[in-house]
Amino acid sequence: MKRFISVFGMITLLTFAFPGMVFSGGSGQSAGGSAGGSTSGSAQGTPLPSQGSQAQNAGQPSETAPQERTIQDPVVASVQLIRTESIFLNQLKAEVEQYEKQTGQSLSLDNRREILNSMINQRLVLQAAERDRILISDGELNNQVQQLRDQLKQSLGRAATDAEFAQAVRNETGLDVAAFRDQLRRQLVMQKYLIEKKRSVIESVKAPSDAEINEYFANNRDKLVRNEMVRAGIIYVPGGAAEAEKTRGRELANRLSREIGSSAAKFDDMVEKSQAPNSGYQARVGFLERNQQNRQIYGSVLIDTVFALDQGKVSPVLETTQGFFIFKVTNNYPFKALGLDDEVQPDSGVILRNYIRSGMLQERQAAVLAQAEQELVIELRGGNPAPFQIFEQYLNW
After folding, report:
1. Which of 60, 111, 129, 322 could disulfide-link 193, Cβ–Cβ 3.0 to 4.6 Å?
2. What's the 3-state SS for 154-202?
3. What is the per-residue pLDDT across 198-230, written as a single tens digit (0 to 9) for each?
4. Domain range spanning residue 310?
5. Is there a single domain that holds both residue 378 and residue 314?
């Protein structure tokens, strides 16, 4: 059964961008999807050690649970590597509800048990890291946060204010910045512990050879294409869920459109003004592909209108379920079947050969990380007595 949570490879990736906007190269699909769309640096898909006999024996329900916090919120599991740490029913329910919301399906008893085992694994790793004095400094944490702020800067076309960053974090994670930093620190600790303990396995990954890249290209030539696309300046005005918010967004977008008219220079002025605090809109330059995914997100009217624009021309306000857009096309690029020395995205400097090399390497790293994670978790869950207990009677609610 597919695993829900990877204990180590779960650094929160905040996708700061215009809602749903699929820019060429950003999603790894611009070269046909195969080289980049299937690669990931995180360890995913590995079975939980609970599926093995050793973990099954260790996780057998006990006759009696530790002291319960309340009758309504009993302890469903406890971890005892360097100290006793309880996992309460409401904590498990919160995780289960999160996954049910994401998948739109009710999770089975086996799914709940799988999530609980992942929660146990995370606590075992954190306690082991504490035991072995593996820490994340404030500088390391701040560096990771700054990378996320840089992502937001690229999306907005300017540095985000603290309030804008806090809102983006809340939108993506449901957490305030302080809680997000705490969560991020724990994730970084777990990843650092994995690297420290399984360094030899992780460093054994070899980059693909030229022959392997050539073979991949030959077998996937029909998928390695660059779709028709435009490079454009994009002004985006959020619409909001409530009708009053949509009305305000529509009024602002229409006002901007009237001020711009058909003038490319005035469009550029509005892009500059978007950087002012409380401007109410965002602007950036990006690539937009003509593909079915974007057509589904934005509708045929937006896609057909933008791709009908000549260079330097400005679109009218284009209303979508995502909000309101105004485009100024600067370059048009036709569909192209890529060769190994062609750029994956215009002006990116990344040729297909290196793109494939990077994708294949990431796939190998992901497989090795999954193996290293599984080995480490099995090691931590071993021992006599086992460093955890599961109280099975509370899983069936």
Report:
1. 129
2. HHHCCCCCHHHHHHHHHHHHCCCHHHHHHHHHHHHHHHHHHHHHCHHHH
3. 999 888 999 999 999 999 999 999 999 999 999
4. 228-334
5. no
